[in-house]
Structure formats: structure tokens, C-alpha cells
Amino acid sequence: MSNQKKRNFQIEAFKHRVVVDPKYAEKTWKILEHAIHEIYNHNASGLSFEELYRNAYNMVLHKFGEKLYSGLVTTMTAHLKEISKSIEAAQGDLFLEELNRKWNDHNKALQMIRDILMYMDRTYIPNSRKTPVYELGLNLWRDNIIHSGKIQSRLLSTLLELVHRERTGEVIDRGLMRNTIKMLMDLGSSVYQDDFEKPFLEAEIRLNEEIERIAHYLDVKSEAKITNVVEKEMIANHMTRLVHMENSGLVNMLLDDKYEDLGRMYNLFKRVPNGLSMIRDVMTSHLRETGKQLVTDAESSKDPVEFVQRLLDERDKYDKIICQAFSNAKTFQNALNSSFEYFINLNSRSPEFISLFVDDKLRKGLKGVSEEDVEIILDKVMMLFRYLQEKDVFEKYYKQHLAKRLLSGKTVSDDAERSLIVKLKTECGYQFTSKLEGMFTDMKTSQDTMQGFYANHLELAEGPTLVVQVLTTGSWPTQPTITCNLPTEMAALCEKFRSHYLGTHTGRRLSWQTNMGTADIKATFGKGQKHELNVSTYQMCVLMLFNNADRLSYKEIEQATEIPASDLKRCLQSMACVKGKNVLRKEPMSKDIGTDDAFFVNDKFTSKFYKVKIGTVVAQKESEPEKLETRQRVEEDRKPQIEAAIVRIMKSRRVLDHNNVIAEVTKQLQSRFLANPTEIKKRIESLIEREFLERDSDDRKLYRYLA
Amino acid sequence: MWEPLVFDRWIPKILSWYVCTPKVQSHMLVISWHMQASTMCEYTKEEFCNGLRDLRVDTLEVFREKLTSIREELKDEEKYRKIYNFAFGWATEKGEKAMQLETAFDMWQLLFAERKYPLLDHWIQFLQVTTFASFGKFGQFSIGSYCVVMPLPLEQTQHNRPVSKDVWFQLLEFFKQVQKGLAGYDAEGAWPCLIDEFVEYLEENGIHPSEYAT
């Protein structure tokens, strides 16, 4: 950078004297004044902006600013006075229109004038502290028009009247109204406040006073009518349309989880009577419809776990909607609950599926899930359980599934199992769960028993290990079955256990449920492949036979084991016909077991696993005949419960009429199942026949309790 | 007042009248009602004597006259009801709580003979049809909101069973109520299930009230 010294240049003004025509100012102003007239008369097209601007510029430059300014005020005022007269002359409704039109004219004119006088606006006005042209124009409008005696009061009353008219349901020109209000705002917020807002608010106050007056000495209904006019106009009349709008109505909002839109609708509709119930009704019928589809869809019934998961998802979705958009209103929650109750019970398999869902979770689904999360899942299941009408059916399945879990040692978490039992107990009372709890007790006691057995028979440490689970009759879903023939070494062991057990528990009877057991056996195949096979007790019995024989016919096996035919076939099928599990080989090769088949050990058996599980006992959806059988058992179990309820009620009431008996019995049993009125009636008849009850001799609808 | 002697002497006579008079059965029933006899065709001495006292019968001649006029008593609505209800215990086998169907059919024919309840024939037909059809029939019963179709074991079909006292008593009430058509029947009206099923049977078979209105 150079250190050269900067030189300052100065440009001198070009000095020459301009001779000014003494009439110059007057002449120039005349031109400008004429232009302003032309502008107001809509004749501006013939004017030259450049010429006018130059004239105004020159006037200011030659120190005639004051003359220009005062001339403008005078001219504009004169025009506004004319305008004022024409507005005053406007009749009725035309008043506001005329005012508005003139205001628009004035505004346009004002803009043109400001442009022409721009130089004055920039130099003369700030220096002499005068009001800028545009503002001046507005002030003049205010003083000459808005505040003119005849216009001011008329404008106010017109505006307030229009507001009132709209409130009472008439249609008004809102554009006109808006323009006028905007005008007042443009004139300065003080104008708006003084000329409109204050009186307007006073009107509000009056209106409120009016309402108060109504409240004091008129019929209350009138008040509601008046205040509802606006709400009705704005919301109620459009409600139905809003709700049912295609592609954007309530149903679509629900489908797409539009929490904000739903919330907005909720808050708006809250203001009018029936507004919320309309939303609720639409939600309910939509929910019922989709729920019904969900539970009756044959596809979704195929996978019980998926079926329940979908129900839970649906429930979560609506929980969230009600929580986020419908301010968690109780009535909406009730609607949600009643909808679920409605459709869950449309599918008679819901109790079975919910139990299967729990089974799935407690077998594997909860592995590695934290304790709190387990609780959350179980609570959700309980919520579905609460909707079930046939809780006894659930209990039946739950018992079956729990038994399988316990006996196969497949339960993931003992805590989770017990937690659910506690929940069921809280919900339905101890009777509901006493048998389930009995099953847990049996498991624990059996452990102790086995320890005691082996402590007393130390010589048994060598040889096969026996694990016996002693199940209390009645607590478990057991069926009387024929005990099959056990391999001799096992039979001897069982006999030892029997004498040990009966030695410590006199007066009991033991029967072996060989259909429910499992066994782990070590097997060595043809080329020395060693595997550990996890099989059922039946399968063990069959396999052990091959220690002493290379070939066995179906009939030989049947004779040796005495396993019931259907079970034997299933058991052979799982060992001889399933790829990867085929530890046996059969002749002829086929998928089904025939009574003339012959069986061999499959010397070529291979598996990439050392431990091979054959024929797992996993709870599955019941087949149709099984389902019917369970249903029949449920029906039979209900009969004594219904009779007990009738007797309880009649014992305390002594005399009660038919319909009340039905109602009370239904109510009493509702926590377990929904009693069928015809069935109740049959039970009543049976009790009459057995002389627990009689009909009143005069009123045949009245029953009496016979002590 | 009445000696056991009288009883012994009168009974053979009375029995002979019972057998030879054409309409003897309804006389027998009404007389038995007066005697409050516990079993059909059997009177204890006590029942017999109390009955005669009740009927104000002191000679065999009076008794015979009574036999011809006693049927009139069946026209009295209140008495008829009492006799109808009495008939159940009277005609039911000793030691049984319900009446065998065949006996019930006979008793209804007898009791309703002059009443002309047009539903009687349908009722008997209904019981007969369902009795024979109940073997292997697929019953339908609904539980809650769905329906299961399954074969019903025989003992589950009401119809094959003897007529219970309740059904017997209620049937008369039912016939009276529906005399002018089924409007008199209320499904919620605590009727025995068998009667409910009978109404269903009528409706299924298109038997309309107008056709059996007298």
C-alpha cells in the first residue's frame, strides 16, 4: 500500500443567477392545482408526471414550499368537502358503499399527489416539521369525512348494525365491512379505537347486559337462543358436512391419525349441543365396523397371536387419539370400551386366542424383555380380557395352555406367570384362579418330593432319572387315560416312586398320565452318530422297544406298548415321516401310518444338531371338533353355576318375578360369562321340578323360594 | 258319620257305574277331585268319606244322580282350573314327579274335550313329532352372539321327557291367553321353554292365529 497522501477534491456549485418571474410561483401552482383537480376527477391520464414533478421541484427549490403546501391543504380540503356531501347524500345501505368508493378514490389520488410532490415530501416537509403528504391526506379525510357531524354517527351505527345483523344470522357484505374497518385502521389505531372499537365493545357490553337481563326476568331459553345464534351459524350448520366430508372427514382423520385436525374438530364441536356426541357416534360406528372386520376376517383368525396383536394395536391407536385429540374425555373412553366389547365377542374364539397370545408371550415372546415391559404387555392383555363376555371359556383355555407350559418346563418367567395370575385374581376373585394357583403349588411340591425320593434312594444315582410331577386331580385339565406299558427299567423306577410316595402320603392314589410326559434319551445310530433325543413318553416307549429288535410291525408295537391307536399313529408319524426327525424308517414309505406297516431304526439318520426335538408339545389353535368339545364342556360347567346363582338370589329375595330373576342372574354371572336367558329359564324350570322354587299360584310370573 | 262298612258296600257299585257309563272318565275325574284322591282309580277310606261329605251324598241314589250332573261343574272356570291342576297329581304314576307323555295325551284329550282349544291338536302333534325326530336330529342352540350346530344327546331334548308339573299347569294358562291369537303370548313372559318352543314350531309351520281362532 502506498503512503501517498490523499488529496481532497471539492466540486463547487455552478454559480449563476436565475431571473425569476415574479408571477412564477403563482403560475406554477395553478398548473399543479389544476392537476390535483384533474386527478380527483379521474382525468389523470392526460397529465405529464415528469412536468408536474419538475414544477413542484422548482417551487420547493425556489423557496415556495410553504405556498405549495398550504395550496395542497386548501385544494384537498375543498375536494373532501365535496366528497363528504356526496357520501352524506347516499341513501340507506348505499352509504357504506359510497364511503368505501370515495375512500378508494381518495387513496388513489393521494398516491398520485404524493408522487408528484415527492420532492417536497423529502426536503421541505422534514425541514419545516410539517405532516408528510400521505399522512396529511389521511388526516384531512378523517377530519372532513369521518369526523364530519353527519357521517361520524351514521358510520358507527351502520357498522354496529351490520355486526348485529350478521350475528342474528343475516348475510352481510363482509368485504365491504372489512374494507371499512381497514380504512379506520389506516387512519390510525386511535381512529379505529375511538370511532369503532369502543362503541363496539360497548355494544358487546350491552349485549351481555341484555343476556343478563334475560337471565333475570326473561325465560332462560331465550338466552340460550341468542347466544347460540352465532355458534349455530358458524359450527352447527356445517357440522354434518365437516364430519362426513369425503377424503377429509372424521373417518379419514381417524384412519390417518390426524391428531391436530381431530383436536381442532373436538374443540370447535364442543361449543354446540350434540357436537361431541356426533363425533363420538361416528367414531364408534367406524370403530365397530373396522373391529368387526378385523375379528371376523378368516385370514386374521389363522394366526391367533397376530389376531390379538392387531386388536392391541387398534386399541393403542384409539387410546392415543382420545388422549391427544379428545382431551381424554371419559365419554370417549367409554365409547372405545363398549366398541371393543362389542366386536371382540363377535368371534367366539377370542378367549382362546387371547390365551394363546399369552402362551406365546410366556413361552418366548418375553425373553429378554424388562420387567416393566412385561407388566405393560400383561396389562394390555388384561384389558382385552376385561372385554370378554365368556371369561370362563378363557379360563378353560388358559388352564390347558398353562398346564402345557408348566409340564414341559417351557415357561420363560415364573414372575410373569404369577403376575398374570394375581391380575386375574384381582379381576375375577380367588375362585377364578384357585385351580391355577393349585397348579403352581403342585409344581413346587413335586420338586420337593423328587428331592426327597432321590435322597432316600441313593442307589438310583446311576441309571435313568425319573422326574414325577404329582398333579392334584381337579386342578389340572387331565382326562382319565389308559397308562401305557413303560419300558421295564422305567416301570421299575416308577414302582419305587409309587411306594415312596404312598409311604409318605397315605390314602392317596397315583395314576400315571403317560400321555403328558416327556423323555430325553441318548441314541447311537448305525455309523456311530450320537444324538440326544427329546421325545414324548409315548415315543420313548416305542423307541426303547428297538433295543431288543431290528424290525417291529405296527401291531407288535401296539401290543407291546398299549398306547391308544390314535396316539400311537401320531407318535409313529412324527418319528418316521418327518424329515430331519426321522429316527425310524418304515416300510412301505408313505406319509400315513398303516396297521400293516413295519418299522426299523433309521441307521442313516443325520441332524446338524446334537439335541433333536421330536414332536414338541406346543399349544395350538384347536381344531373344529376339539373346539366343539370344549364348548360343550363349558356349557355343562355353566349349568351348576347358573343354578347356584338362581338359588342365591331366591334365597335372599324369597319372592321375585321372572324378568328380575333373569336380570339378576345375568348380572351375577357377568364377571364370568354371559348367561343365555333360555338356559337360565331351563335352570329355573329344573329347580321348580326339584322343588327348590315354585310359581306363585295367582301370578304365574312370580317365583317363590321353597326353604 | 260314615262307617267303613258303607265304603266297602258302595265301592263295587260305583266301580261298575264307572265302567259302564260312556262318559265315565270325566265324572270319575271330578268325583276324584272332590275326594281329593291321590291316585287314579284308588280311594282311601278317608278320601272317600270326606268326599261324600263334601258332595253331600248320603245314599247311593243321590250318588248316582250326582254322577249325571257333576259334569256341569267343569263349566265353572274356577273349578275347572282346580280340577285341571288336580289331574296332574292324580294321573301321575306313584313316586314320579312328571307325567308320562302317553298318559298326558289321554288326559288332555279328556280335559280339553269340551273346551275346544284349537291349539290342542297342534300341541300334541308338536310333542309327537319332536319326540320321534329327536333321535339324530341336529339341534341348534345359540350361546351369546353366535350359533353352534351340534347333535344333541337324547336326554337334552325336552320333548322326549315326561310332562313336568310346571308345563302341565302353565299349558292351561297358555291356552287361555292365546285363545284370540298369539298376541296373547309374550316371549319374555316366563313361559316354560317347551311352550316357547311350541310357539316357534307354530311360527315355523305357518300356523297362524286366525286359523285356530274359534
TrEMBL record, chain A:
Pfam families: Cullin, Cullin_AB, Cullin_Nedd8
Species this chain originates from: Hibiscus sabdariffa
Family: Belongs to the cullin family.
PANTHER family membership: CULLIN
Gene3D superfamilies on file: Cullin Repeats (1.20.1310.10), Cullin, Chain C, Domain 2 (3.30.230.130), Winged helix-like DNA-binding domain superfamily/Winged helix DNA-binding domain (1.10.10.10)
Protein name per its UniProtKB record: Cullin family profile domain-containing protein
High-level lineage: Eukaryota, Viridiplantae, Streptophyta, Embryophyta, Tracheophyta
Domain Cullin family profile: 349-576
UniProtKB/TrEMBL annotation, chain B:
DCUN1 domain ranges (all copies): 1-203
Gene3D superfamilies per UniProt: Cullin, PONY binding domain, EF-hand
Entry protein name: Defective in cullin neddylation protein
Organism (species): Hibiscus sabdariffa (roselle)
Domain of life: Eukaryota
Role, per record: Neddylation of cullins play an essential role in the regulation of SCF-type complexes activity.
InterPro entries tied to this protein: DCN-prot, DCN1-like_PONY, PONY_dom
Organism placement in taxonomy: Eukaryota, Viridiplantae, Streptophyta, Embryophyta, Tracheophyta
Pfam families: Cullin_binding
